[in-house]
Amino acid sequence: MVAGGWRPAARPRYVMRRFPVQVSHQSLRRFSPRPARGEIVFGIADLQAVRAYAAAYVRALGLTADWIADFLVATNEVATNAVVHGAGVARLRVWDAGGQVVAEVYDEGVWPRAEGEPELEPPGPYPTGGMGLWLAHTVASGFRLSTGAAGTTVTLWFDRG
């Protein structure tokens, strides 16, 4: 706790980045045609299986324990958001894009804001919710939210280095 309210503890690897957040409110296909090892379809009761699926994929890439922990936290937050605030069922795809690992979560829900970006500012003092997308945005190297009549896709990029 700091004077004036709550702030996340400073850790050298976490810097509040101001990279462009890509938000699209157009109709979209369920997934872009990118290589993937597979996908997992899940509901709220399956979130442990989602974490296990994502963990198995990135462990096979030989990444560090800290890198894997960051990836799993961000991916889990987006997956949870999809089934809690979306259509109740979602899909996760993970793939290796060379210098980056990509996680993409799709659900048939529509982003509630007609215009503007997702709330990616730090939460206020003593938050009890509303931190999932902010956390994913903070931990990931890149973040894109696309929504339209077909549903919502959140894509996260994680630099391997």
UniProtKB/TrEMBL annotation:
Tell me which SUPFAM superfamilies the record gives.
Answer: ATPase domain of HSP90 chaperone/DNA topoisomerase II/histidine kinase
One example GO MF annotation: ATP binding
Q: Which parts of the sequence belong to the Histidine kinase/HSP90-like ATPase domain?
A: 45-156
Entry keyword annotation includes Kinase: yes
Do you know which InterPro entries this protein is assigned to?
A: Anti-sigma-factor_SerPK (IPR050267), HATPase_C_sf (IPR036890), HATPase_dom (IPR003594)
Q: Where does the sequence pass through the membrane? A: none
Where does the source fall among the domains of life?
Answer: Bacteria
Is-annotated flag, keyword Disulfide bond? no
Which UniProt keywords are given for this protein, alphabetically ordered?
ATP-binding, Kinase, Nucleotide-binding, Serine/threonine-protein kinase, Transferase
* Name of the protein in its database record: ATP-binding protein
> Which source organism does the UniProt entry give?
Spongiactinospora rosea
